[in-house]
Amino acid sequence: MEEVDEEPKSQAPGEVGESEIVTEDAAFVRGEPPQDGDGPPKVDSEVEVLHDKVTKQIIKEGHGQKPSKYSTCFLHYRAWAESTRHKFDDTWLEQQPLEMVLGKEKKEMTGLAIGVSSMKAGEHALLHVGWELGYGKEGSFSFPNVPPMADLVYEVVLIGFDETKEGKARGDMTVEERIGAADRRKMDGNALFKEEKLEEAMQQYEMAIAYMGDDFMFQLFGKYRDMALAVKNPCHLNMAACLLKLKRYEEAIGQCSLVLGEDENNVKALFRRGKARAELGQTDAAREDFLKAGKFAPEDKSIARELRLLAEHEKAVYKKQKEIYKGIFGPRPEPEQKKNWLIIFWQLLVSLVLGLFKRKRVKAE
After folding, report:
1. Dihedral of alpha carbons 210, 216, 256, 17, sign
2. Residues of the chain with pLDDT under 50
3. pTM passes above 0.70
4. Three-state DSSP class for residue 79
5. Nearest to 111 by CA among 91, 87, 127
6. Residue 227 confidence (pLDDT)
7. 284: part of which helix (H) or strand (E)?
8. Which burial class, exposed, middle or buried, applies to 247 when counting CB atoms under 10 A from its CB (0-12, 13-18, 19+)?
9. Which of 92, 129, 269, 340 could pair with 256 as two cysteines, CB 3.0-4.6 Å apart?
């Protein structure tokens, strides 16, 4: 059940192969956020000068082309004031990527835009931006942690971008245009999944989901909400399939749970969450997911196989634990045999009689 959701309806949901993807069933994907310590990450790569006020160091290389002017870019970032090392913004915590149209960015993000324009999709980089291209002489009213004339540090991941000559942002699109753009991204992700390009596939799914953020979904009702979920939920399921292959089980659980929040009986979400939980040793929770999935897909051989594997695993663990305990405490001691108190009584009585007899005999002599 690790496909991309585009198998025919007649196919049992658990019988999808190891390379399956979600497409037919036409929250946000956090991806793998960098570790957040006390300040910006330490990077040893070469410093690239992009502008006299902007430098870049690559943490992880991206792929493909770089965005051009008026491209709509989707990115995650953390931002610090360089002098105080106080973090003032973090899109990972907000669980919503920033949408930026290059050439139409806010003034205080000019330096960030220069950095993003030099990046490839999937690239992870550290940017240093001078105060002139940030919040300027006055600092930020919205972010008190940004003092006047504060140089900035950005940790950025460019999820991806859309090349649009007119620079049309999501907010300017109709509902149908946004759903259509998301569906095209999903299809691109499916193609990459089939080629085993998992990281690139996830970027496409994340881009698709970015078109359908919580603010957008909250406004939809009826058929439009159904249309959006028919694209959004498969993207989450396909993200989970990728994450299972990459052994990022906690994240896979999160993706499945997002789908189950909309459709509590979704068989694929239950199945994939069960697999992730089983890999993490959460056997009771995994069994619960598999059993629930089995109620809605009783003929699914994959579900039955996972339940059997779970039972075999638990049996093997129990046997191993039994051997460990045996090695620690040694063989079980044999119980002491119960003493026959009647025999002991007669032995004492005979000893007393013999003792008296000996004393009388000595006295008589």
Report:
1. negative
2. 7-32
3. no
4. strand
5. 127
6. 93
7. helix 283-296
8. exposed
9. 269
